[in-house]
Every structure is written in structure tokens, then in C-alpha cells.
Amino acid sequence: AVAVRVVDKLRAAFAExxxxxxxxxxxxxxVSIGMAxxxxxxxxxxxxxxxxxxxxxRDKQSRT
Length: 64
Description:
The chain is an all-alpha fold and 64 residues long. The protein has helices at residues 2-15, 45-62. The longest helix has 18 residues, at 45-62. The radius of gyration is 15 Å and the shape is elongated.
């Protein structure tokens, strides 16, 4: 539950326009986030990273 709130806050932060640069960016910049939770998604780093990677690509595809 805490991880989901962190992801939501990150998404909200990236949704805001970037105003600290002197020129407007020609394209929209997006973010895709994948999350894996120990031990449900794996008990070793390799497995957790693999599940987070799959979740990230799933998130990315859901936005296209």
C-alpha cells in the first residue's frame, strides 16, 4: 500500500509541466513505473527486477 502511494506521487510529479528550462520541449515526456513486492513477486533480486520490468512494460503498453 505504501509503494502504491509512492508510485502515485511520482506519476503526479511527472504529470506537472517542466518550467525550470528556458525553452518549451517539443514532445511530451512520460514515465512508466513497474513495481515488484517482496516476497509476493519474488524472494531474490533477479526475480524481483524481472517482475518489476514486466510490470513497467505492462504500464507502458496500457498508456499507448
